[in-house]
Amino acid sequence: MKTYLEFRQKRIENKATCKEETTNILQEIDRNKHLQAYIKVNENAVNEAAVADKRFEAGNPGPLEGMLVAVKDNISTRSMPTTCASKMLEKYEPVFDATVVQRIKAAGGIVIGKANMDEFAMGSSNETSYFGCAKNPVDTSCVPGGSSGGSAAIVAAGLAHTALGSDTGGSVRQPASFCGVVGFKPTYGRISRYGLIAFASSLDHIGIFANNIEDTALLLDVMSGRDDMDSTSANTPNTDIFNAISASQQTNSNFKIGILPERMLQCCSHDVLEVYYEYLDKIQKSGGQLHEIEFDCYDAWVPTYVALTTAEASSNFSRLDGIRLGHRTEKNIDNIDIVSLNRGEGFGDEVKRRLLVGTYIMLSNPSLQYYAKAKQMQQLIKKCYAAAFDKVDFIFLPTTSTSAFKTNEKNSDPVSMYLSDFFTTSANLSGIPAISLPLGKSKAGLPIGMQLQANLFEEEKLFAYSKKITR
Ligand code: GLN
Fold first, then answer.
1. Distance of alpha carbon 173 from alpha carbon 426, whole angstroms
2. Which residues contact 445 (CB under 8 A, 6 or more apart)?
3. Which end of the chain is more exposed for a tag (fewer CB within 10 A), N or C?
């Protein structure tokens, strides 16, 4: 298991160099090409590592000096492709770095490459990628999850220290759970989304994959904080969680922990429930008190998510017409049909399905009003969470109802694929921070993650308790 913290310590003690580490990881990437986890590898990484070595030698390394970060391919990187795993943006190279990438580079981090994903972050398995599905390193016949499946596979296989993903309905936490790594989604507004190619702007978050809580905290501390380039960025300073959790030896664990009523766990496999109950027991033994939370409207979580995301996507994606941006057909045509040809050729089936649903939802027919109803539902979900956090410190629940499924298993059944996001979408709809922790294994040896959710902007408390649980 590769962690940046361990490498940094070795680098400080002169037992390793950034150049060696980068060369080794590049070789590993080459050996693991069959995982299809990267869309593009940074050819200049070794030179950048040499610069990082100089800063260590001069005694002034940045907080992420020499950290090798894989960046999901929907986060803009200057002079590197940002394809969203779509034919539509296959040739797109942004002229700027996303704010998170700028901040990582300024702190000494190195973008080691661009990670595979579901096309435009729409999916739960990585199977909608135009470049082919990334594989789960634990069992390559299984999916790594999605949509940030490449990022999760990369961290699990040691092909970078950490990775960035995006989480609109669970796309960081679900693949983290399937691949056995930590996956964190912040409070909405905590991390700037400037440069993240939008799927559904009101629910999109940039999140982090790592092999431990400390590396996750280091990245969050660097990436968080107000950004004037993102109008939804919260006016809060950078977090300082790494120092806070390193300093406090004894974290209080007498917390009130919210749990779901049994009927909400019916969809879970036996393996998942086993890990869940094992940890409920541990939580209680370490002083946690369990409180059952009633979520009145939980059966509306996924439908609300689907209505809002497809509607927002249908609006966001109108600029991808192959005239202003995106794939241009090679057919010789010069009339209005060119847009439908560009989009017809450029988008895969899942994207088309969602854009059609979203366009229907946005119809102005007054008898439908799906979007308005979904917005009302979202307010209710937010209220439910606010009421829950009046009573408890955290909510503990599975990240996914099963461990990783087989490639092609759910491909022909989009509804069952959507329902697999049952435990993750509510954190996006309410904007709260949530983390998936690798806490167990199925009988077949596949990773199982459990989720811890906290109140808005309570990341420090969330990380401290996560550290306690994973110890
Ligand atoms: N699996 C969910 C979906 O397909 C979540 C996607 C995401 O978070 N980007 O919509």
1. 12
2. 138, 139
3. C
Ligand 1 centroid to Cα of residue 82, in Å, is 18
The pTM (predicted TM-score) of the whole model is 0.97
DSSP 439: E
Question: What Rg value do the Cα atoms of the chain yield, rounded?
Answer: 21
Ligand 1 midpoint to CA 146 (Å): 7
Helix ranges, 40-125 (H): 45-57, 99-106
For residue 309, the ligand 1 atom closest to its alpha carbon is 10
Q: Please report which confidence band the pLDDT of residue 411 belongs to, taking 50, 70 and 90 as the band edges.
A: confident
pLDDT per residue as tens digits for the range 262-278: 999 999 999 999 999 99
| CB of residue 149 inside a 6 A radius of ligand 1 | no
Cα–Cα distance list, 375 to 307, 337, 370, 384 (Å): 9, 34, 9, 14
309 alpha carbon to ligand 1 midpoint, in Å? 9
Q: Residue 249: its pLDDT value, please?
A: 63
- pLDDT category of residue 415 using cuts at 50, 70 and 90: confident
Tokens of residue 445, six digits: 């040896």
List phi, psi (to 5°) of 341. Answer: -65, -45
Mutate to test the pocket of ligand 1, among 171, 185, 422 (most ligand atoms within 8 A of CB): 171
Closest-lying ligand 1 atom to the alpha carbon of residue 350? 4
The torsion region of residue 374 among left (phi > 0), alpha (psi -120 to 50) and beta comes to alpha
Q: What is the largest CA-CA distance in the chain?
A: 71
**Whether pLDDT at 208 is above 80:** yes
| Gap between the Cα atoms of 253 and 245, Å rounded | 14
**Contact in structure between 351 and 128 (CB atoms under 8 Å):** yes
Task: Give residues with Cβ within 8 angstroms of 132, minimum separation 6.
Answer: 36, 116
Using the atom order of ligand 1, give the atom closest to the CA of residue 306. 10
Cα distances from 270 to residues 289, 370, 397, in angstroms, run: 24, 36, 14
Model confidence at 296, pLDDT cuts 50, 70, 90, reads confident
3-class secondary structure, 239: coil
Q: Are strands 162-167 and 182-185 parallel, antiparallel or unpaired?
A: unpaired
- The confidence score (pLDDT) of residue 250 equals 60
What is the helix (H) or strand (E) element at residue 185, kind and residue range? strand 182-185
